[in-house]
Design goal:
tt1808, chain A; 10 strands; two-stranded antiparallel sheet; globular; single chain
């Protein structure tokens, strides 16, 4: 008897979109496609939701509505034939109506807010953004209370990683004149169960 190596089915973005359109994924369950694998997205606790909203507010000031940028919160990016992640925040060129027929295929900046999803975001999503040529990715690390800034994607990997803490500030590459205090991104108080 011959042994056969059995591999997992890798989904294409087209197959994934058909599953979504036909309602074949569990109702109310948040999922995303990353490199052919459909991952369940972890539910948002209040700490994550607070970090997400603070990032949205700060980037809303840095990228005002009339500036030609769209701030997308937890919406898909069609990055490749096998990846359609949903970053917590993505800054893309254009307006809401530009994406009526298809999701954006790139972004100027993506932000992941990470507590329980930290390993997934760091090991899978940040490298995916680098391979997709996204010039800048931020990881708001709620476990360590820092902002990790990734820049300079070359050959599928970010060459620069900067760790910023409360008291530091950052300027997005897409709006270098905008200065954002890291403390404005971090929740002010931490739940007792938080690390």
């Amino acid at each position: 008897m011959a042994l056969v190596d059995i591999e997992a089915h890798r989904w294409t973005r087209q197959e994934y979109d058909r599953l979504v359109d036909r309602g074949l994924l569990p109702a109310g369950k948040r999922v995303e496609l990353v490199e052919g694998v459909i991952y369940d997205m972890t539910p948002q606790n209040s700490l994550h939701a607070t970090g997400f909203r603070k990032v949205q507010q700060a980037l809303g000031v840095a990228f005002p509505l009339a500036s030609g940028f769209e701030i997308r919160g937890q919406l898909p990016l069609a990055l490749s034939e096998d990846s359609e992640p949903e970053p917590d925040v993505a800054i893309v060129l254009g307006s809401i109506d530009d994406f009526l027929e298809s999701h954006p295929t790139t972004a100027l900046l993506v932000v992941e807010v990470a507590d329980s999803s930290l390993l997934h975001d760091r090991k899978r999503k940040i490298p995916l953004y680098a391979r997709s040529g996204i010039p800048e990715a931020w990881l708001l690390n709620l476990v360590r209370k820092v902002l990790e800034v990734f820049r300079d994607p070359i050959d599928g990997a970010y060459q620069t990683r900067i760790i910023l803490r409360a008291g530091d500030s950052v300027s997005p590459l897409g709006r270098p004149e905008a200065m954002i205090a890291v403390s404005d991104l971090l929740p002010r108080a931490w739940p007792k169960s938080s690390p």
